[in-house]
Amino acid sequence: MLGIALATILLWGGTAAALQALLNIPLPQLHEPAFGWPLFLLLAILYFITTFCLLGSLMLGVGSLAGTVREVQMLSLPVTFAQLALFFIAHAAAGKFGQPVELFAAIFPFSSPFAMVARAAQQGLWWPHPLALAWQALWVAATIRIGARLFRRNVIQSQPGRWNRFWRR
Question: How far apart (Å, rounded) are the C-alpha atoms in residues 146 and 135?
């Protein structure tokens, strides 16, 4: 899923850049991020990947709890609203460095990527970003593991030990 999402972004971004170059459309004047464009874009891509993996594994777990497509739709609605709430928390925290709402948004794993991208755009401190990416990678691993375990148990209806016993015979 992540590869498809990145390929789609690359395709549409490349199409937009090609059209801009062909039609000679001037780019809007943007403020320079605190880290400069190359490092900021790298951080934005890394935070996108962690966000995508966190939310994708969460949806995998939700999908494994449902028996029908209708149940998946009903269970994913609260998750979608929670995603919006986390995005708004990160939006409210942007520019409020050191305040409780900003610290919460930066630490809570599902809003952390959004808050850290905002921090990278506005503040030039480098050390929080490797720490935040490591924290998010830990949560990505945990949510993928839990989501995959739920999917394996509820949808595929198998456990890892069964196959090991089967092949040993």
Answer: 17
Examine residue 6 and state whether it is found in any structural domain, yes or no: no
Number of domains in the chain: 1
pLDDT tens string 83-130: 899 889 989 998 898 899 999 999 999 999 999 999 999 988 899 999
CB distance 126 to 35 below 8 Å: yes
Domain annotation covers residue 150: yes
User: What's the pLDDT tens digit per position in 87-98?
Assistant: 899 899 988 988
Distance in angstroms (rounded) separating the CA atoms of residues 31 and 17: 19
Domain of residue 43, residue span: 36-159
pTM of the model: 0.81
- Nearest Cα neighbor of 42 from 120, 138, 108 is 120
Tracing tokens 């928390």 back to the chain, one arrives at: 89
Q: Which residues contact 155 (CB under 8 A, 6 or more apart)?
A: 63, 64
Under a CB-based contact definition with an 8 Å cutoff, are residues 115 and 95 in contact?
A: no
13 domain residue, yes or no:
no
